[in-house]
Amino acid sequence: MSEVFNFSAGPAVLPHEVLTRAADEMHDWHGSGMSVMEMSHRGPEFEAIIATAEADLRTLMAVPAGYKVLFLQGGAMLQFAMVPMNLMRERGSADYVDTGEWSRKAIAEAGKYGVVRVAASAADLGVAGVPPQPSWRCDPHAAYLHITSNETIGGVEFHWLPDTGAVPLVADASSHILSRPMDVARFGLIYAGAQKNIGPAGLTIVIIRDDLLGHAPPSTPMTLDYQAMADSGSMLNTPPTFAIYMAGLVFRWLLALGGLTEMERRNREKAALLYDLIDASDFYSNPVDPADRSLMNVPFRLVDDSLDGAFLAAAQEWQLLQLKGHRAVGGMRASIYNAMPLEGVRTLAAFMRDFERIYG
Ligand SMILES: *Cc1c(COP(=O)(O)O)cnc(C)c1O
Description:
binds pyridoxal-5'-phosphate; alpha/beta; 34% helix; 2 domains; Aspartate Aminotransferase, domain 2; globular; Aspartate Aminotransferase, domain 1; 14 strands; 3-stranded antiparallel sheet
């Protein structure tokens, strides 16, 4: 197999060891004679797979008692609707902090279900980043306050948690869940699509505090009601069995590597390689306030965007794949999730220096 480094924002690179293990088990999971894809979700084999995956995720994230872990479908974007459907209740109003493209999509969707107040917006900052909490105008009666804890497109990450008092804090952690420890007890609800930093597409993880269950109006479809999904152990209907199995293998891989403290150490080292290079160069730039830069998604521009095509073509020759920035913002983006080895980031940095030497 040719060695490539894949910087896709998602679906994204998976750990080599995990793919090898899945390939070994593809036709015959643990002597069952069946592929995981062929098993009843109600059989003892899959019951063990989902129970182990949940237990390992709880260990990794140190999820406290009093929280449910749900394995859902529909992607993070369905959570843009499920969160207000389930949490807005009779109060009918929620606060959102706008730090970029994904925040704005979440805000637009929530507006279908109730009143959405934008408590703070990066648009008022004049620079990409997180508005400082003293500038937020929060409603103490809001049903919840929503943040996008890592903006995958803009490369903006919360490196601190807001104090929301009695208002439950809800986070879209799709692109940085498991990249470092998170104090789950500070949140009412955390959600994440799996295809960035966990596993294959088709699975969405929701971690929800028990008191936020059971408030969906009666018209809510069963599969979109957190309470119904929690009561059934995420198996009201057929869950995304293979994606849950793959996520479970990733959780095991993370535990074996030393858990999220070790991942944070590795992720900081990888991100620093790129940001240091970009900051030391007049050829590359990153628009984000250094205090709010993402450890997972590093967007950058070339000084002359007419060189973008040459950059991507040359990167391809170095086996560095999927570096094109999101269509909404252009430029480049290197997503350096948990499964991206340090070697991949070193190779990208060497390539960027080489390209600057030739074209700079
Ligand atoms: C990718 C992404 C989404 C959308 O996820 P889907 O699973 O495609 O619905 C939402 N929020 C963030 C922060 C993302 O990175």
